[in-house]
Amino acid sequence: MTDGIDPIQDREWRVLHDRIAETLDRFGRRDAFGDGDYWLVDDNWGQCRHLIEIQNLNLLQPHIVKLLQRQLSDYPRWEIRVGVDTVKFDRKWPGMGLIVYSDQILDELQRNYLPPEFRNLRYEGARRTVDRDEKLA
């Protein structure tokens, strides 16, 4: 989808899409139907944003998120939204994820819903945007 989209935005979108896919392909398999490890949305809606749905929680490891963040170093106006595919895990889980920028990470993970081995994930330069863990624990 590129009708009416700024050509600079479209070029940057394509470059970042390829870089993000190449990064994540090192750690998992892309699948739009929930049978892989992640899905990188293929539609360009004209925003400076990429959307990823994580179906394998191992892709939330800090070193992988850091690699995604590095892809934005030359594109400071862009963001990568990493959402946990909650339907894959438990329909009762609320929406949660990370918003990755070139200079910071907004951490919206609700760890009390995650399996114990993922509750202590911490990201360098991250800022928590929700404080629900303590309220729901």
Description:
It is a single chain. The protein is α/β, with parallel strands linked by helices and 137 residues long. It has one domain. It has helices spanning 7-25, 62-71, 86-89, 132-136; strands at 38-40, 49-54, 79-84, 97-100, 105-107, 126-128. A 6-stranded mixed sheet has the order 1-2-3-4-5-6, covered by helices on one side. A hairpin with a 4-residue loop joins strand 4 (97-100) and strand 5. Helix 1 packs antiparallel against helix 2 (62-71). The longest helix has 19 residues, at 7-25. It is globular.
Low-confidence stretches: 133-137
Largest sheet: 6 strands, mixed
Please tell me the total number of domains.
1
Q: What is the structural class? A: alpha/beta
How does the overall form come out from the CA principal axes?
globular
Helix tally? 4
In N-to-C order, the SSE pattern is HEEHEHEEEH
Biggest sheet, spatial arrangement of strands:
1-2-3-4-5-6
Oligomer: single chain
pLDDT averaged residue by residue: 91
At a glance:
The chain is of the alpha/beta class and 137 residues long.
Keywords:
single chain; 137 residues; alpha/beta; 6-stranded mixed β-sheet; disordered C terminus
Secondary-structure map with pairings?
Blueprint: H1 7-25, E1 38-40, E2 49-54, H2 62-71, E3 79-84, H3 86-89, E4 97-100, E5 105-107, E6 126-128, H4 132-136
Parallel strand pairs: 2-3, 5-6
Antiparallel strand pairs: 1-2, 3-4, 4-5
Helix pairs in contact: 1-2
